[in-house]
Amino acid sequence: MTGYLDYIGYAVALLAATYAALSLLFMARRNQLEQVFARERSDAFQKRVSIELDQAQQVRDHQQRTWDGYRKFEVAEVVDEALDVRSVYMRPRDSKPLPPFKAGQHLAFKFNVPGQEKPVIRCYSLSDGPTDTARYRISVKRQGPPPNNPDVPPGVGSNYVHSLKPGDLLDVRAPGGSFFLPPESEHPIVLLAGGVGLTPMLSMLNYVIDNGQKRETWLFFGIRNKSEHMFADHLRHVMAEHENVTIVNVYGRPSDDCVEGHDYQATGYVSADLLKEMLPSANYDFYMCGPPPMMSSMFEGLTEWGVPESRIHFEAFGPASVKKTAPPPPAGDTPAEGIEVVFARSSKTVTWKGDNQSLLELAEEHGVALSFGCRAGSCGECATAVKEGKVRYLTEPGFTPETGSCLACCSVPDGRIAIDA
Ligand SMILES: Cc1cc2nc3c(=O)[nH]c(=O)nc-3n(C[C@H](O)[C@H](O)[C@H](O)COP(=O)(O)OP(=O)(O)OC[C@H]3O[C@@H](n4cnc5c(N)ncnc54)[C@H](O)[C@@H]3O)c2cc1C
Ligand code: FES
């Protein structure tokens, strides 16, 4: 009987000892985990604090370095990139640091072109990433007369840019525009460029690699052939050095000296069919800039493929060729007899009949002089005070006019309106 009781006693003691040991182990593990969690929580907290401090610093830097109106810049260097495409590097004449910009944004210039009555206002995208705070780069294609109208004068602004030499002075507005790669996102992206529309895409691509981002990045670049292949060596180098980047050069008309696989990867056009063939899915943010036919067909092709409009971003180098759905104003909102527009300074009252005709086009139709530059909502040159009523924008402008003003090139009246023109 005693032996039996002893046995039970041992068993109980063993169980108690095991329980105590397990409790100790459990407590030790819990302490260990708590320490890990506390460390991680504190790391995450510190990371968040450091991101927020960085962002606050960036905002402060931006406020300190940016400027209103035009600032004098000096041409530092000019470099030929391809047939009729030239890069201009420029630094501020006051040598103060430049504000950081967002990859994809542009500059507006006021050129004093000999022989032109008025200053010529033009926009050019920043063609490099935003890391250099001492100088900016733009890359400009020289515009000749249109092939179907060879007797008209060549492009004023682009030819002036091609005449610039180091030391020449330029009047430049601070970087702006709503077409940019959001710095906080690392979602995979597809960049679609046609011709000189590469410039904002190159800025985005350089931003991705300069910041060591590992996001999947594709660039589809459409040009005629090797002669138009700007930044070819740089792009080849980027592709070789960064496994998250794939570049597909698409040549429309390869010449005999173009080598498939080396110079270009596909022939034809940058099209939705090509994307469907090469991309594993449609789950990307798409950014595009190119000639109007490319933009409108890509936009259509991508939406048909199921890409939501909110994931398609584009920049027009001239009047908008792509209109997202539900552009204001909805057709039914315009009364059959039209909307009254008063050009107050010219003492003219006219009727706006809809059809998305901008206030600038309406003014021109009725002989009212309104200043303009880009006709694309980017330069601010057409800003006009609204004395009565309000406007709606056909596309989101890249330039924010002062309160009480509108950009006449891309807005339409939202009911009866009087503007200072
Ligand atoms: C946000 C933004 C960013 C841009 N970024 C870039 C960029 O990075 N690189 C770039 O190269 N461009 C860029 N552009 C385009 C640029 O702003 C200019 O529109 C482009 O350089 C042409 O301007 P231009 O003064 O040379 O031509 P314009 O003088 O405006 O002439 C345009 C065309 O019209 C023709 N023309 C002249 N007179 C007539 C007439 N009577 N009848 C018919 N045709 C006529 C000209 O021969 C020319 O082909 C950008 C535009 C915007 C809005
Ligand atoms: S003309 Fe440039 S914003 Fe209207």
Task: Describe this protein's structure.
This protein starts with a helix and ends with a strand. Strands 4-3-6-1-2-5 form a six-stranded antiparallel beta sheet, with helices on one face. A six-stranded parallel beta sheet has the order 10-9-8-7-11-12, sandwiched between helices. The chain has three domains: 70-144 and 153-173, Beta Barrel (Elongation Factor Tu (Ef-tu), domain 3); 189-315, Nucleotide-binding domain of ferredoxin-NADP reductase (FNR) module (Rossmann fold); 331-419, Beta-grasp domain (Ubiquitin-like (UB roll), Roll). With 421 residues, the protein is an alpha/beta fold. The chain has seven helices and 19 strands. Helix 4 (232-241) links the parallel strand 8 and strand 9 (245-251). The model has no long low-confidence stretch (mean pLDDT 90). It is 29% helix and 24% strand. Flavin-adenine dinucleotide binds next to strand 4, strand 5 and helix 2.
